Amino acid sequence: MGGKASLIVVIGFMSILSLYQLNLSRRINSAFDSFNQSYMKTIVHESALTAMNFGVNKLWQTETTPDSFNIYAAGCTSKVNIVALGTDSVRVSVKTKGYVFDEVYYAQTNQLLLIEDSLYSYFSFLTPASRYFWFTNSEGNVYWITGDTVWGPLHTNNYLNTSGYPVFYGKVTARRGISPSPTSSSSHAKYYGGWEVGINSSVPTNMTTLVNVAMADQGGNPVNTLCYYDQNLSLNFLSNGNVIRTVGSNPADTVSVAAIAPSGVLYCTQQVRVKGTFNGQLTVYSLGNLWIDDDIIYADNALTNPNSNDLLGLVSGQNVIITDNAANNSNVVINGTVMAVNGSFYAQNYSTRPVAGTLTMVGGIVQSSRGAVGTFSSYTGSILHGFSKRYYFDNRLRSMSPPYYPFVRYLKLVAWWE
User: Fold this and answer.
1) Is 27 inside a domain boundary?
2) Nearest to 282 by CA among 306, 314, 308, 317
3) Confidence of residue 241 (pLDDT cuts 50, 70, 90)
4) What percent of the chain lies above the pLDDT cut of 90?
5) 339 class by beta-carbon count within 10 Å (0-12 exposed, 13-18 middle, 19+ buried)
6) Measured between alpha carbons, how far is 386 from 92 in angstroms, rounded to an integer?
7) CB 377 within 8 A of CB 403
8) Contact at 8 Å (CB) between 57 and 109?
9) What is the DSSP string of 108-129?
């Protein structure tokens, strides 16, 4: 019996060890399967990111052209789709597939286990030009100097030139570079909002929307009575929402801004002159020069009241000019956003007019070529003619703009999901 008992014990131990070995093997295989799945999920996700980068690069090149293509990377297949959503946004989507061996799944289906991942990114390519405080295609030979202070985002497609100690509280971007470089010991400018070079965009030139809106509101009314004018136009805004209007050589009359611009747009094929205290929301578009004859201020100050509803856009197909007159030779305040589509924003006779104090701007400036508002001494940095500058961005313009204000085409990322 002892021999049989010993044999039974040995067989029992062998059975237990065999079961333990089998269980250990299964656990090892399960661990390998879990590791393989985890590793493959990482590979699939990284491949999806690679494909998304290809898609975004293609989008930067073509902007809104719909496209669909495959990317093969690290044994994974990614499908990239670029789709325009309406008139202002684009979606890039990526779906990536990879396969991994899983013992249990293979035993059940005789197939490899599918691992998938999806990524989405959304871009906007139309930004109201009023979102920028300062935007130029070319800065020319004009400098930001000691005493110049800018609150708000600033961009140029050319070089940004500084001399002395100008201060920028918003982010500064320049396509070709900043001179002197902010990293140079010779640069004394302060970039509190940061800076970046290589960023490119363009001043809007298509004003069709403004013209169409004004002409639709004009309807069958006589020219020069409502929101379409073919003679020189002078607008002296009043704080009660009215405006003293002078058309050509006709006598002036007083009308409601809301009445003559139901949708908030005035269109003139000649020159326009503006001044006064503005109450309401309006965009004035002139094919000729637009002259600022005196201060333009909001009835409800946007700097002291961020809930102010007053918004004024001044758009010229040529230049926006600060008139050289007595009213403008002792400080000038401009509330609103100005745009010189094919020209500049500048002070008339800037190099010969007397020292005129400070030009305070609350809003934004967009121009094709940067204009000058004064001259300065390269030795002392002091103003010789014209104005020193105090430029403030109207923070309301981050989320709102004057009626139908033109758009800058600048593709930007607004959302990303993984």
Assistant:
1) no
2) 314
3) very high
4) 49
5) buried
6) 50
7) no
8) no
9) HHSSPEEEEEEEEEEEEEEEEG
Residues 215 and 321: their CA atoms lie apart, in Å, by 26
Residue 174 near residue 154 (C-beta atoms within 8 A) = no
DSSP state of 341: S
Looking at per-residue pLDDT, the higher value among 58 and 211 belongs to 211
Find the length of the chain: 418
Look up the domain containing 73 and give its range: 32-127
Judge whether 368 and 344 are in contact, CB under 8 Å. Answer: yes
Task: Answer yes or no: is 372 within a domain.
Answer: yes
pLDDT digits (tens, 9 = 90+) for 306-356: 899 999 999 999 999 999 999 999 999 999 999 999 999 999 999 999 999
Cβ proximity of 267 and 214 under 8 Å: yes
Cβ-Cβ contacts under 8 Å for 253 (sequence gap 6 or more): 244, 245
Short-list 148, 134, 96, 102, CA closest to 118 = 96
Residues forming beta bridges with residue 338, ordered by sequence position? 314, 365
Cα distance between residue 188 and residue 372, in whole Å: 21
Q: Of 285, 287, 312, 317, nearest to 298 (Cα)?
A: 312
pLDDT per position as a tens digit, 28-61: 555 555 767 788 888 889 999 998 888 888 887 7
Q: Determine the Cα–Cα distance for residues 214 and 216; give it in Å rounded to an integer.
A: 5
Query: What CA–CA distances, in Å, run from 154 to 67, 363, 366?
Result: 33, 12, 10
Asked whether residue 21 is assigned to any structural domain, the reply reads no
Evaluate whether residue 140 is within a structural domain.
no
Closest CA to 364 of 169, 128, 185, 189: 128
Residues 227 and 118 reside in one and the same domain: no
Structural domain total, the chain: 2
Give 12's Cβ-side CA count (13 Å radius): 6
- CA gap 341, 210 in Å, rounded: 13
> CA angle, corner 396, sides to 300 and 241, nearest 5?
30
